Amino acid sequence: MKIKKTAFLQSVTDWRQCPKSQLPEYAFIGRSNVGKSSLINMLVQNSTLAKTSSKPGKTQTINHFIVNDEWYLVDLPGYGFAHTSKETRAKWAAMIDEYLQRRTNLVNLFVLIDSRLEPQNIDVEFINKLGEFGIPFSITFTKADKISGTKLNTNVNQFLDKLTETWEELPPHFITSSVTGKGREEILDFIESINNNNL
Question: What is the pTM of this model?
């Protein structure tokens, strides 16, 4: 897939305010500071599209971008730790859960996992919740350039092995780097294949 045009559409705090169009929608989510905004910018080759920050919790709304006038890319708030109150985090969690369960044209959720880390309970618990919700998703390991290839493979395999404790069939997964562009073509081809199958 070639990215010809990408534009910011809107930021909302309620799924009912999302675009009325039934274009296919691909959302991105991960633990705070997992490199979500950098990955999004790498995918669309626009370094300023999604706001990046060294401070966790920068994304606080459901942010829609339209790509090639054909599909929506959605930047969701991170889950887990952020420099904000417990009450605010609870509101974010409720907003995300409602979006995931009620947004009918969400065709895939990319769950971002920091490849530098061993399996984190918060990530596994979130993925298991997606199973309960029946949400289609794939796993995207980020920051692959930050560690050696051997350690990368070890961490990825450990995470996938952890999921086999509760999942009979594992979802698709991608290994990415927003610095080198690793994984970009694979993710865009994956999106394109889903779009073509839904025509």
Answer: 0.93
